[in-house]
Amino acid sequence: MKKLMIYFTVLLIVAAFVLPAQSAMKKLGQTGLKFLSIDMTARAAAMGSATLVAGGGAESVFINPAGIAEIPGTVDFFVGQTSWIADITYNSLGLVYKMENIGTFGLSVRYSDYGEIVGAQVAPTTVGYEKTGDVDVGAYSIGLSYARYLSTKFIVGGQVKMIHQSLGESLLNDETTVQNELTNVAFDFGTIFYPGWKSFRFGMSVRNFSEELKYQKESFQIPLSFTIGVAMDVLDLMGEHKDPLLISVDAIHPRDYAERLHLGAEYVLMDMLALRVGYKTNYDVEGLTAGAGFQVDVTGFKLNIDYAYTDVEFFDTVNRFTVGFSF
């Protein structure tokens, strides 16, 4: 088992140098419903999205469903908001409840607010078009997840989620007005394994598995991704310590892009203040990430407030806020 752990770690380290060089800026295709691949929590975003096995709880409903089994208490809950580019806002909610000897259940909700969009259509005017009023555009997903320990070292989890997107109405060539809406089901699956060497663990996940979708004539796929990751409190190598320094590495194979690597670090001071940094390779406009979190005990439950900053080239800075509690 120790040899397997060493091999897995070396594999990811090699990937950190080889994959970006071999696959830089290589786009493989297009997918729809891209809101399904956006980070919904500030902690994950601050650590460069490298949190596949870097901590469980309610945030895992959007990352790796196996991680929901790792909540320390009975209930974990959060709400979050992401101020994305072009005045797009993503709102999220995660709720996890552990039932002894049965497993852990989770609920995920995400909603995309695309703001005000003015519609237009071709018309015999001087400018060649005419406005048709505001377009009702939006998207959301609602998921139910379940996870449990199959042994003291191995966790498995899955999620089924309903996805919906509306792009408003449009006028076809035959003057027929159609509503561009679709609803379907997608699945997530994940695992986490602790081989028994200090706090080291690794795992995998498959997210957004679904059939092809179609509006009118053109079909498309949603952003399916396969991820493997490792994480460890590296200060374990120095013996007993109070404040952990978590290092995590995730290697991602998305459907619509070449392989990517996410690197993240989190240092927790006195079990209250968390400082985070991350980096994402092989992205067009994303790279450096950073953030912080604050945790405090309040009359029987823990309150968490997290913030993340993402540097997006050519666009406005992306900010994320998450507030949660657990008991």
How would you sum up this structure, described in words?
The protein has 327 residues and is mostly beta strands. The chain has a single domain, classed as Beta Barrel (Porin), CATH 2.40.160. It contains 2 helices and 18 strands. The protein has a 14-stranded antiparallel barrel with strand order 1-2-3-6-7-8-9-12-13-14-15-16-17-18. Strands 4-5 form a two-stranded antiparallel ribbon. A two-stranded antiparallel sheet has the order 10-11. A hairpin with a 4-residue loop joins strand 10 and strand 11. About 7% of the residues have low confidence.
Number of domains: 1
Order of H and E elements: HHEEEEEEEEEEEEEEEEEE
Q: Whole-Å distance between the termini?
A: 35 Å
CATH-scheme architecture: Beta Barrel
Mean pLDDT: 87
CATH class: Mainly Beta
Helix/strand layout:
Layout: H1 2-23, H2 42-46, E1 75-83, E2 89-99, E3 103-113, E4 118-122, E5 129-134, E6 137-149, E7 154-171, E8 177-193, E9 201-209, E10 213-214, E11 219-220, E12 225-233, E13 245-254, E14 260-269, E15 273-280, E16 286-298, E17 301-312, E18 318-326
Antiparallel strand pairs: 1-2, 1-18, 2-3, 3-6, 4-5, 6-7, 7-8, 8-9, 9-12, 10-11, 12-13, 13-14, 14-15, 15-16, 16-17, 17-18
Quick recap:
With 327 residues, the protein is mostly beta strands. Helices cover 8% and strands 53% of the residues. The chain is built from two helices and 18 strands.
Task: Note the main attributes of this structure.
single chain; 327 residues; mainly beta; Porin; two-stranded antiparallel sheet; 2 helices; 18 strands; 53% strand; elongated
